[in-house]
């Protein structure tokens, strides 16, 4: 049996690969001792693995933000990447003869594709995401394409690195695999922790991906040209050096232009009147309008959360029916914009209002921004209002029994995966516990006509938690909107979409308005009863409740 790593007989020529310039079946001619060379290869594996996982997490995060439904996007990205890694590993078998040059080329392409992936995906979403027809799926197609490409390149690293580490110092296959995978997995751990705790909060998604690509290119180039340059022809070295110089120049240019690009893309998404755009640490908050007669709009992570044209109708419908009865102590879940608090505080006999909002940045904006604070009528200046910056689930678990007369759930629609636990049987069980005898719970359950199954699943979940419910709906007026995530590309009026609500209590709640409170501007008792009858006609029965371990939304 021929030992491919045995020294060649005296006088025989070295076994070189083809034009790629790497030798096959021979030890590398290293500029350092084998032990040092092996350490440097494993260090390169560590850094490249960290970069690879950052690319994966960046695609998942950006896709969840732009497209929505984080579980689906994470499943698509990770499953496609793992599949592509297998394809890349098989394809890289043909490059083992040119392991050094092949690894350098793979890292250069991976750095370019991974580093620019966030910027390209955001650009496609910003300039085509609001279009109809085939363009509507452009972000989805691009997400799969990036996942396939990055996964194939990451998979190609493993056989090439295995070849290189064996050329540094031959060892049994099991030991080589153990060393390689140990460095790879530890690097993945560091990359996985660096993304949410360092890159995302300090650099953001675009610059974070570009910096990761730069590190990836530098380390790949340094490893190949510094350690294995003698195993490559002069032409291969110059080609690799030129390619990496081009990649680093492109990444550097994109990094310098990232802020200007983000502003241009943001204007393409939200229109030209973006007034405030901040990342609070929990989410991206964008305020548009409130100038030149344009009504104020509030976007959270790219989704329209509040429009001044329709905000009063929504919050009066959500809050006012729940306030018909004892309401000295009120809990608002979410509602960091202050509009639900505005409606609660209109009742002079309210003694205390607790707002549980996990994003203190949104609360600061609602407190100090002139447009938003005027819209909520400076609710945060009222001494009866107290803000708790906490997760609603965690806060309710530590809240004493029968604490509140009214609970208002002003949370994002249940159709978004990140919030499904706040529409679960377990969550409503906690809410039932903190309600005082005779207390009432108001829940915004999303659009009834567009997603009737989701709405009535919320109803079934409340009933499974031991609460009686009454459903009602309020039709939203048509709004002429500029291009954006929920707007037409040409700025045509968006079709009216109703909002569905559920009023819940231990006993059947009456749907009426408090006669002692100031009169609402958009609601009457008669309109509420008509809205309840309209909602009843859409009722879906026999739906199972949603739980933490089996979400139904």
From TrEMBL:
Keywords: Cell membrane, Membrane, Polyamine biosynthesis, Spermidine biosynthesis, Transferase, Transmembrane, Transmembrane helix. Its EC number is 2.5.1.16. It is found in: Cell membrane. Residues 1-27 are annotated as: Disordered. It catalyses: S-adenosyl 3-(methylsulfanyl)propylamine + putrescine = S-methyl-5'-thioadenosine + spermidine + H(+). S-methyl-5'-thioadenosine binds at residues 283, 357, 391-392. Spermidine binds at residues 315, 337. Residues 249-493 form the PABS domain. The active site is at residue 410. Pathway: Amine and polyamine biosynthesis; spermidine biosynthesis; spermidine from putrescine: step 1/1. Residues 1-13 have a biased composition (Pro residues). SUPFAM superfamilies: MFS general substrate transporter (SSF103473), S-adenosyl-L-methionine-dependent methyltransferases (SSF53335). It is an enzyme of class 2 (transferase). The chain crosses the membrane at residues 39-67, 73-92, 104-125, 137-156, 177-200, 206-226, 238-258. It is a multi-pass membrane protein. Coiled coil: none annotated. Catalyzes the irreversible transfer of a propylamine group from the amino donor S-adenosylmethioninamine (decarboxy-AdoMet) to putrescine (1,4-diaminobutane) to yield spermidine. Belongs to the spermidine/spermine synthase family. PANTHER family: THERMOSPERMINE SYNTHASE ACAULIS5. Homodimer or homotetramer. This is Polyamine aminopropyltransferase. The gene is speE.
